[in-house]
Specification:
Layout lengths: L1 H21 L16 H12 L11 H5 L9 H6 L4 H9 L15 H13 L8 H4 L1
Helix pairs in contact: 2-6
Length: 135
């Protein structure tokens, strides 16, 4: 019994050594970069997305056009395609005179970061997408 357990232990340890030596194991890269938003910002972004008071002057919300089962509903695929233009697209949509007629959101403002944080978490976008809302 003792001999079997020693053999199994040897096989287990040798397989671990082989994985590390072959280069197939890649340890996760840890970033020291601080994420520029938190849960409060995500909740604020959700409120902005669904509230009439914060962004729109005409009483329209983002959900009115981009909610589920709407003509212009958002999808993860669409947002991934608009990689570098997402913040511009948000401002373009907010300032449309016919629909929302809101004020342009400044990059780095509390509302812009919150809306970006909400979009990034809701649609499971890469964390790098938030940078265009901050800078």
């Amino acid at each position: 019994m003792k001999k079997k357990s020693l053999i199994l232990l040897f096989l287990f340890l040798s397989s671990i050594v082989m994985v590390f030596a072959s280069g197939t194991y890649r340890p996760p890269i840890r970033s020291n970069k601080k994420i520029p938003y938190n849960r409060v910002d995500i909740a604020r972004g959700q409120k902005i997305f669904s509230s009439k008071k914060i962004v729109g002057r005409r009483g329209k919300t983002c959900i009115a056009c981009h909610g589920k089962n709407k003509k212009n509903s958002l999808s993860r695929y669409e947002l991934l395609r608009k990689k570098r233009q997402l913040a511009k697209q948000v401002n373009k949509c907010v300032t449309l005179g016919k629909r929302v007629n809101g004020k342009k959101l400044k990059k780095g403002s509390r509302n812009m970061i919150a809306l970006g944080a909400y979009l990034v978490t809701r649609f499971r976008l890469p964390q790098s997408y938030i940078n265009q809302f901050v800078k």
